[in-house]
């Protein structure tokens, strides 16, 4: 049982390049989330999904896109990378129902130069 | 506006010196409050869930408590391995929105 797995762990992109951050979970969780964490700023929600085929915007969705074709996978797409997207990105999942904690991956550290 | 505030931002303690971290919140319709531990280069790791005022949960040297306006994470006789960032999150509202605080960086000196 691997939990939540994120790839890659590190990536450097040039301004204007595109990439996909991968997230997969093996716990059969319906809810999945993407956050970004900047120094001193806490976790900011980018997008979330309550099940396969359903996604919704969070607090800071501009510049990102997501899809959820399966329960297990929730990739995050950056289409035109900008320096402001330099951050650490965390994927999380949880089971359906109130008061259930999130389980986090170990993050992707992304630098846009 | 829903808000979660953690204090202090950073705390340095000597090994064995007990203290408390604070998480205050202003939300409508609290569903639950979560505490996480985050080590450098890692994702947050779940510690506790608290549901209602008066509730307490314990795990080793950590004890979490909840009132109607805030939660405390008490750390008793801490060890250097307790050094980490501690995050508080609140789940609230009809849409089960989850709001994180900015965290408290705890450093335990040997």
Explained architecture:
The complex is a heterodimer of chains A (about 110) and B (about 110). With about 110 residues, chain A is mainly β. Chain A is about 0% helix and about 50% strand. Chain A has no helices and eleven strands. Chain A has strands at about 5, 10-15, 20-25, 30-40, 40-50, 55, 65, 75-80, 85-95, 105, 110. The radius of gyration of chain A is 13 Å and the shape is globular. Chain B has about 110 residues and is mainly β. Helix content of chain B is about 0%, strand content about 60%. Chain B has strands spanning about 5, 10-15, 20-25, 30-40, 45-50, 55-60, 60-65, 70-75, 85-90, 95-100, 105-110. In chain B, strands 2, 4, 5, 9, 10 and 11 form a six-stranded mixed beta sheet that branches. The N and C termini of chain B lie far apart (about 40 Å). The model of chain B has no long low-confidence stretch (mean pLDDT about 95). Classes of the chains: A mainly beta (about 110), B mainly beta (about 110). The interface of A and B includes residues 4, 42, 90 and 106 of A.
Chain pair with largest interface: A-B, 19 and 22 residues
What Rg of chain A is obtained from the alpha carbons, in whole angstroms? Answer: 13 Å
Mean pLDDT of chain B: 95
Q: What best-fitting shape of chain B do the alpha-carbon axes yield?
A: globular
Structural class of chain A: mainly beta
Quickly count the helices of chain A: 0
According to DSSP, the number of beta strands of chain A is: 11
* Largest beta-sheet details of chain B: 6 strands, mixed
Distance between the termini of chain B: 41 Å
Determine the strand fraction of chain A and express it as a percent band: over 45%
Model regions low in confidence, pLDDT < 50 over at least 5 residues of chain B: none
End-to-end span of chain A in angstroms? 36 Å
SSE run of chain A: EEEEEEEEEEE
Task: Quote the average pLDDT of chain A.
Answer: 95
**Helix and strand string of chain B, N-terminal first?**
EEEEEEEEEEE
Total of DSSP H or I helical runs spanning 4+ residues of chain B = 0
By secondary-structure content and strand pairing, the structural class of chain B works out as mainly beta
Percent of residues in β-strands of chain B: over 45%
């Amino acid at each position: 049982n691997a939990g939540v797995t994120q790839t890659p762990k590190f990536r450097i992109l040039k301004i204007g390049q595109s990439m996909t951050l991968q997230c997969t979970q093996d716990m059969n969780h319906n809810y999945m989330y993407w956050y970004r964490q900047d120094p001193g700023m806490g976790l900011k929600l980018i997008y979330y999904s309550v099940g396969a085929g359903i996604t919704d915007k969070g607090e800071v969705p501009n510049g990102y896109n997501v899809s959820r074709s399966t329960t297990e996978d929730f990739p995050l797409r950056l289409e035109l990378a900008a320096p402001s997207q330099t951050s650490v990105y965390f994927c999380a999942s949880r089971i359906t129902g109130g008061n259930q904690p999130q389980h986090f991956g170990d993050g992707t550290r992304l630098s846009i130069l | 506006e829903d808000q979660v505030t953690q204090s202090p931002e950073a705390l340095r303690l000597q090994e064995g010196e007990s203290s408390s971290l604070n998480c205050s919140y202003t939300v409508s319709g609290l569903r639950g409050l979560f505490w996480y531990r985050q080590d450098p280069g890692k994702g947050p790791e779940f510690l506790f869930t608290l549901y209602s005022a008066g509730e307490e949960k314990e795990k080793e040297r950590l004890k979490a408590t909840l009132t109607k306006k805030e939660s405390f994470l008490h750390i008793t006789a801490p060890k250097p391995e307790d050094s980490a960032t501690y995050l508080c999150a609140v789940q609230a509202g009809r849409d089960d929105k989850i709001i994180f605080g900015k965290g408290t960086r705890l450093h335990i000196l040997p």
